[in-house]
Design goal:
Number of helices: 12
CATH class of the largest domain: Alpha Beta
Number of domains: 2
Largest sheet: 7 strands, mixed
Number of strands: 14
Shape: globular
Structural class: alpha/beta
Mean pLDDT: 90
CATH superfamily of the largest domain: Aldehyde Dehydrogenase, Chain A, domain 2
Distance between the termini: 62 Å
Radius of gyration: 26 Å
CATH architecture of the largest domain: 3-Layer(aba) Sandwich
CATH topology of the largest domain: Aldehyde Dehydrogenase, Chain A, domain 2
Strand order of the largest sheet: 7-10-11-4-3-12-13
Length: about 350
């Protein structure tokens, strides 16, 4: 099935139907109209864990719904380009499949993205923005701040504000807001809850079905299980630190993250921290919002991915720069044999070779 689908897409592209600019615009308008027409179905599908939405528009777009096995079968086909977003282990499998056909790839993989709250940070601002960013979609975003290094001088004030904002954003009285998202499936719920250390939980922890309420764990260390893998869920581990250089040294010793966040009022220090730290993209005194700027290419580095997209970067990612020279009748005779010392000297002088 996947082979036939890929061949149909390839034939449509090879027909030249997508070449004219007007045709591309029409196709984009078709996609937009489809999204509007089937909006209710898309919403229902997301609500019910991606139930299939049926629509007939072969050639423009096609969808394969299935597990890792179905995706593996799909990638056995030859593509011009593969774009993948997901976990690092699956990313390795995608890259291995792509290598068979030497297919270029963009991999957006995630990882443990750190957030540092330094001693001179605006504590209220930091708490407000990090609580929003951490628990957006119940922590299930690839650029969610994964763990929080908080300077001991502002630790207590920051934790206090964090708890205040969690209650203000996600609770109606003592009850979790009905708008707080579910964990995507039971398998992920089991993984996320396995990170919880009851001895370090200072807020939250209740589970109702696949709804896991916001959890704050304090005085976490790098040896704790919650620091062993990307959380991808509503757990906020707080790790106190006293020395910024030591904290950075530890962060830099780990896999390169997809995102990096730093809170400080000192612009000079912030510039240095961001320059010295390897990561895909990041923010100073903010989280996640770098994704909203189309002028900023977005992508990972190292284990967090390869390639970049958004705005112009997306156009360049999905385009091949094809070079073409069109030449008139003017000739440079020295390029033709027979060759001589005179021709060689002329060519060296012409090319600026000493």
């Amino acid at each position: 099935m996947t082979k036939e689908m890929v061949e149909a897409q390839r034939a449509y592209f090879a027909s030249g139907a997508t070449w004219p600019l007007d045709e591309r615009r029409k196709n984009l308008e078709k996609i937009y109209d489809l999204l509007l027409k089937y909006k209710d179905k898309f919403v229902a599908a997301f609500h019910e864990d991606y139930n299939k939405c049926e629509f007939d528009n072969k050639g423009l777009v096609d969808v394969v719904i299935g597990s890792r096995d179905q995706v593996g079968d799909l990638l056995d086909n030859r593509f011009d380009y593969i774009f993948f977003t997901g976990g690092a282990e699956t990313g390795k499998n995608v890259l291995a499949k792509a290598a068979v056909h030497l297919t270029p790839c963009s991999l957006e993989l995630g990882g443990k993205s750190p957030c540092i709250i330094d001693e001179d940070a605006d504590v209220d601002l930091a708490a407000r923005r990090t609580v929003w960013g951490k628990f957006l979609n119940a922590g299930q975003t690839c650029v969610a701040p994964d763990y929080f290094l908080v300077h001991s001088k502002v630790h207590d004030a920051y934790v206090k504000k964090v708890l205040e904002y969690i209650k203000a954003y996600y609770y109606e009285g003592d009850k979790l807001s009905p708008n707080f998202p579910y964990i995507i499936n039971d398998r992920q719920l089991e993984k996320v809850t396995s990170f919880i250390d009851e001895k370090k939980v200072i807020f939250g922890g209740k589970v109702e079905g696949r709804r896991l309420e916001p959890i704050v764990m304090d005085n976490v260390t790098f040896e704790d299980k919650v620091m062993s893998d990307e959380i991808f869920g509503p757990i906020m581990p707080i790790l106190p630190f006293d020395d910024l250089e030591e904290a950075l040294k530890k962060v830099h010793s780990m896999e390169k993250p997809l995102a990096f966040y730093y809170f400080s009022k000192d612009k000079k220090k912030a510039k240095r921290v961001m320059a010295l730290s390897p990561f895909g993209g990041g923010c100073v005194n903010e989280v996640i919002m770098h994704l909203t700027n189309d002028d900023l290419p977005f992508g990972g580095v190292g284990r967090s991915g390869m390639g970049a997209y958004h705005g112009e970067a997306s156009f360049r990612t999905f385009s091949h720069q094809k070079s073409v020279l069109v030449k008139g009748k003017m000739e440079i005779p020295v390029k033709y044999p027979p060759y001589s010392e005179k021709k060689t000297n002329f060519f060296k002088e012409f090319a600026g070779i000493k």
